[in-house]
Amino acid sequence: MVMQGGADVVTSAGTTTRRAPGARSGRRPTLASVADLAGVSLKTASRVLNHEPNVADATRAKVQDAAQQLGFRRNAVAADLARGGSSRLVGFVTGDLANPFYSALASGIERELRPHGLQLITTSSDEDPGREHALTEALVERRVGALVVTPTATDHSALRPEIEGGTPVVFVDRPAEGIEADTVVIDNRGGVRAAVEHLLAHGHRRIALVGDESRLWTFQERCDEFVATLQEAGVADPGRYVRDGAHDADLARDFVAELLALPEPPTALLTANNKITVGALHALRDHLAALPAGTPPDVALVGFDDFELADLLDVTVVGYDVVEMGRQAAALAVSRAEEPDVPPRLVVVPTHLVVRGTGEIPAPAS
């Protein structure tokens, strides 16, 4: 049994050891305990640990030695806030941490923040509007230096006071609803138009679009352009093969299987994101396995978003630089802190078609 008396610790063996003043079992050492051990005032200890000038070398050494003995770690966030500023942390609210798209986005953000001495905290809304609101509230309550959000909610007006108060807020991949703010998006319409025109050029007229939740701005943009491009090409009822709600690969697989089982199935697919493309590939494999042995692939596929192993699988995709998207978002946040009064800015990241094979399967002869 251990008994404590003041700063002494008496063990069951009868030996007595002396704790450094202010050190307590189970508690983090405080700035006050560092000052006590070093024999200086609280203000002097604070100045040393916050790397402020005009402290004698001997005094600085005593404080640093005391901090090391106690295992004291400076709370940088608290120090920044105590001086009336915000922290050096930047909050990033993603849509889905399991999606490689968001990890690449976070990588671009972090790379741009690092030279500015800023650090990234990443959280995920799981495409839940309520969770997104709770996470953004929690981050701004902690006075993050900036906030980057991939929005899923339909109203972001609650962030207006933060923006007006000077907190840089940047929306990435989708614009905000209800407020104006700095935004980075993909050229969704240009990418879809290139994909559909590519499939049309290979003789396809029955083209399906399989997408995510219909409330998401990205899907709305891609769906609208999909329908418009087919209409311009004279395709009757261009929305007949549009399916939404494929929020994961399993659902996408089911949707594609249902489309291919129709009496007059589509001959080509456009999948609206990387997860849906993976599900579609599974469905196409099942479809091909049900055909006579040696039958070549007969359904074309173009996926929006590149993904790992897409090149090995010969998947034609609409590609773009995701890391650059993140870098641009972080750059907007940093420059917004320096120039808070400039009008909201929009950055559109270009897309390009990556031809690999699946999108070049010709339409069957009618």
3D architecture notes:
This protein has 366 residues and is an alpha/beta fold. The protein folds into three domains: 25-74, lambda repressor-like DNA-binding domains (434 Repressor (Amino-terminal Domain)), CATH 1.10.260; 89-180 and 322-349, Response regulator (Rossmann fold); 188-319, Rossmann fold (3-Layer(aba) Sandwich). The protein is built from twelve helices and 15 strands. The chain has helices at residues 31-38, 42-49, 57-70, 76-82, 100-113, 129-141, 160-164, 188-201, 217-232, 249-260, 274-289, 322-338; strands spanning 3-5, 8-10, 16-18, 89-94, 119-124, 146-149, 169-172, 182-186, 207-210, 242-243, 268-271, 300-304, 316-319, 346-349, 352-354. A six-stranded parallel beta sheet has the order 5-4-6-7-8-14, sandwiched between helices. Strands 10-9-11-12-13-15 form a six-stranded mixed beta sheet, sandwiched between helices. A three-stranded antiparallel beta sheet has the order 1-2-3, with no helix packed on it. Strand 2 (8-10) and strand 3 (16-18) form a beta hairpin. Helix 1 (31-38) crosses helix 2, helix 1 crosses helix 3 (57-70) and helix 5 (100-113) runs parallel beside helix 12. The radius of gyration is 28 Å and the shape is elongated. The N and C termini lie far apart (88 Å). The model is unreliable at 1-26 and 77-85 (pLDDT under 50).
